[in-house]
Structure formats: structure tokens, C-alpha cells
From TrEMBL:
It comes from the Eukaryota. It comes from Aegilops tauschii subsp. strangulata. This is Aminotransferase-like plant mobile domain-containing protein.
């Protein structure tokens, strides 16, 4: 990592600590709903108090798209060592395979009113109330809501949508600091079909986009201040494919 950039204050919307704090308090009924949409592995997410941002930045400079894979498939390499959607599924226990989550360039300006209405309805938001802070606050409120007499069908559907929004934006695939990426909203139109989408592939796709942004900034001499995508996966992925050992890299403290 270039020394001239090593002093910069780096931030990231990827916060496994925020996710752990919420899901660790789920009731048995809520845990079962998480399992029903294929995200049960996240119930075992350990507490990560800190994710090294400088180390993540360094790793993102080493990421490249795997050109040997089909153009439609998301796969990457860290200095030649590959990682695939299946690796994400192993690390986080989220769905792999199935229908692809709609790509950003396919839905830009084309996210259906049905998808937006489903998410807003689940989170209790009004039309146009789409700031990142407001959406995540609303999602967290839905997830923490208590039900003394059990959850009605409407409550269960809202919980599923809120859960995916919360974990995507706080852990699996955050794209922005101030706003929410709408592309995956298309996969939330029908809450009972959430598990039929390839969320692991979506995680890889956003990591590759983030790496491209970082590398383009470095090539143009621009500073990098925000890191997007699941930077935690790049760090813990060594449990699946030990690229860190092969690279002989060291950890950078923030």
C-alpha cells in the first residue's frame, strides 16, 4: 500500500459488530425466520469488534476479477488465488446458487414500484423517505420489535425483508455511505422467495466493484476514504483459501 496514503482516515459501512449486536438477541421464532430464508449461518456470526480498514484497503488493491469464469459469473482472485460465491456461503452461511440478484446496471431507474412498496411497507416508511440512516434505523426497529403473542404473517414477512436490508447494508454488500443501493430490492418483492436468490454471488459482485473503485482511485492519484463491500470476507476468507499465507502479507493496524 502506498505510503503517501497510509495516513488517511478510512471508514466503511461494513459493520459486523452492528449485525452481531442485533441478531444475538433474537427470539427462537425470529431465528427460525432467518433460517427459513437461508441466512441461518449469520446466527452464528461471532463478535468482531474491529475490522482492520487499512488491511482491507491493501487487500482490495490485490483483488482482480477471474477472467477464466463465464462473464455472467462473479468470481475473483487475490493475487491469483481465487474466491467464489461458494466461499461466501461457507463463511457466512447465506444462500448460494439460484437466481442472480438483479445487477445494478440492469435496474438503474427500473426498480419496480412493487419492490419499493414492499420494502417501504415492511419498514414502515413513507415514499421518498430513503436516506441510508432512516432506512437502517427503520429496519433495526422492525428486527428488535417484541411480540408477546407471536408474529402474524404480515409481521413475519416484514421481518424477513428488514433482516435482509439490515445485513446487506451493514455487512454483506454495502455500496454507499449516505444512501441505499436499490438493486437488490427486486429480490425482496416476495419475502417467501428470498432464499431462491444467489446472495453469495451478490456479495462477490460488490467486492469486485469495490476493488475496481479503489484501484481506479490509486491509478488516478485520488485518495481513498471509504471502503465498500464485505471487507470482512476478504479477511476471514483465509479460512477457506489461505491466500494470506501464500502472499506472505502482514496485518496493518488502523
Amino acid at each position: 500500500m502506498p505510503r503517501s496514503r497510509s495516513h488517511l482516515k478510512l471508514t466503511s459501512p461494513c459493520s459486523p459488530k452492528a449485525v452481531h449486536k442485533v441478531i444475538s438477541r433474537f427470539s427462537p421464532e425470529k431465528k427460525q425466520l432467518v433460517r427459513s430464508i437461508g441466512f441461518g449461518g449469520l446466527l452464528e456470526l461471532p463478535l468482531h469488534r474491529k475490522v482492520g480498514h487499512r488491511f482491507s484497503l491493501w487487500l482490495l488493491t490485490k483483488v482482480a476479477r477471474d477472467a477464466t469464469r463465464a462473464q455472467s459469473a462473479a468470481a475473483g482472485k487475490v493475487a491469483g488465488i481465487p474466491f467464489y460465491p461458494h466461499d461466501v456461503s461457507i463463511v457466512f452461511g447465506v444462500p448460494s446458487g439460484g437466481r442472480p440478484v438483479p445487477k445494478k446496471d440492469q435496474v438503474q431507474g427500473l426498480v419496480s414500484d412493487e419492490a419499493k412498496a414492499t420494502v417501504r411497507g415492511a419498514l414502515g416508511l413513507d415514499e421518498g423517505d430513503d436516506s441510508r440512516l432512516r432506512i437502517l434505523h427503520a429496519a433495526k426497529h422492525v428486527l428488535k420489535k417484541r411480540f408477546r403473542r407471536g408474529m402474524a404473517e404480515k409481521d413475519r414477512a416484514a421481518f424477513k425483508v428488514a433482516f435482509v436490508v439490515f445485513v446487506v447494508e451493514n455487512l454483506l454488500a454495502p455500496r454507499e455511505v449516505d444512501s441505499i443501493s436499490l438493486d437488490y430490492f427486486m429480490a425482496l418483492r416476495r419475502p417467501d422467495e428470498i432464499q431462491t436468490y444467489d446472495w453469495s454471488e451478490y456479495v462477490i459482485r460488490v467486492i469486485l466493484d469495490s476493488a475496481c473503485q479503489v484501484q481506479a482511485a490509486f491509478a488516478q492519484g485520488r485518495p481513498v476514504e471509504n471502503l465498500f463491500g464485505c471487507i470482512l470476507f476478504l479477511q476471514v476468507g483465509r479460512a477457506i483459501r489461505p491466500w494470506f499465507l501464500l502472499l506472505g502479507c502482514r496485518v496493518f493496524d488502523d
